[in-house]
Amino acid sequence: MKLAFRILAPVLVIVGSVWLAKYFISTKPEPRKMAVKPQITKVEATRLKPETFQVFVETQGTVRPRTTSVIIPEVSGRVMFVSPNFREGGYFEKGDVLLAIDPINYETAMIIAESSVAQAFRTLEEAKVSSKQAVENWQRVGKTTEPSDLVKKIPQLREAEARLRAAEAELEKAKRDLEKTKIKAPFAGRIAEQIVDIGQYVSQNTQLGRAFATDVMEVRLPLTNTELAFVDLPETFRGEPQAEIRREIQKAPEVSFRGIIGNHVGRWDGKIVRVDSSIDEMSRQLFVVAEVSDPYRYEKDDDSPPLKIGMFVDALVKGDKLENVFILPRQAVRIGGEVIVIKDDNTIRRQRVTPIFSEDKRIVIPAEGGGLKAGEVVCLTPLAYPANGAKVLPTIDGVTPDVETQGEIFGGKGGKGKRMKGVKGTNDSVGESSNAAKPAETAKRL
């Protein structure tokens, strides 16, 4: 009996376990089914329309003066006076006395020259009287022929006249030397460097300082071959009439400069006046020269700082005006020159385009021959993996689609207020809160 129980007990346990397992399997509840929400991407888009685009070519350059001069005296002597403006950074006007050299030696030379002129004048007058007396003596002795030049003392007269002219020339030179003891500014400008100071002896080869004119500053700007296609430069030819040259300069493009000095941002306006004669061999760029007129003059309503020599400035060169073009943000154009076009059924299509001009934030595409047509909708939101035929929910030029359109995108029948089966709210399918309002309220809120 015990043996039979030992044999049947395990068998009964196994059979009971199998039956219990089958019972649980057969009576298990059905799993709850959840509706899969469609993955629709919201994007920003714009509808293309032809526009006009003003080209501004971005470039950079360094400020330099158009006129620079090294101040050198024409006379020698000790510096007796230095103007307060003859300091580095000082301003001066044309004709201002910058330095003065001791004039005593040149005043003495002028007095001596005046004495020489008086002596030469006296000698000339005596020669005239002597010549006249010689002719009278010739006639008094009964000579009827014309006396020779030697008899009339013409050589002595001419010598006296030459000595008078030489003395007068020496006097003029002495006066000029005396005037040159005052070093005057040849133009209105600014001191770049002061080399000598009061009490120093200077000669004709001594450099007193360096100055530059403040009437015009120049900026040399590089332009690439592509940028040159949009800028009308003032090109001139050898032997061209001056009237044509002036006309070319007048229609030269304008330039706007921007520079930073400390916490101050300066802005100046200029104009391209000439073009270099050759293309730079290293950069393969053509340099043009723009001028800024009178950048140091004080203007009450202008808070820009004075333009500094050697300052690095950004420049915007006004170029051509492009007609009948599409203007897109740079992020709308993918690497490889492709844009994403949204079709009427809100599916996307990758389209290759051919831009004609680009800048940091915008790209310009021609309306004809650029790959796009007026009225097409272009996606502005960058997509990581845009597949042709994928559906999106576009907001076109700030206008969000209504609920009816959303229902069509989500696979509904399109009736107003229709919802997908198993979806509590219209906005649930695009990842919004499940506690969304009713479709009509959602449309009103949008």
Stretches where pLDDT is under 50 for at least 5 consecutive residues are 403-446
- Trace the largest sheet across and list its strands: 2-11-14-13-12-15
Basic shape: elongated
What distance separates the N and C termini? 84 Å
**Rg (CA only):** 48 Å
The chain-level structural class is alpha+beta
Fraction of residues in H or I helices: 25-40%
Count of discrete structural domains? 4
Strand % is: 25-35%
Order of helices and strands: HEEEEEEHHEEEEEHHEEEEEEEEEEHH
Topology, element by element:
Elements (H helix, E strand, L loop, with lengths): L1 H25 L14 E7 L3 E15 L2 E4 L5 E6 L8 E2 L4 E5 L2 H37 L13 H27 L1 E3 L4 E6 L6 E2 L6 E5 L2 E8 L1 H4 L13 H9 L3 E8 L2 E16 L6 E8 L18 E18 L8 E5 L5 E5 L4 E2 L3 E5 L10 E3 L12 E5 L6 H7 L29 H7 L1
Parallel strand pairs: 1-21
Antiparallel strand pairs: 1-20, 2-11, 2-15, 3-10, 4-6, 4-9, 5-8, 6-7, 8-10, 11-14, 12-13, 12-15, 13-14, 15-19, 16-17, 16-20, 18-19
Helix pairs in contact: 2-3
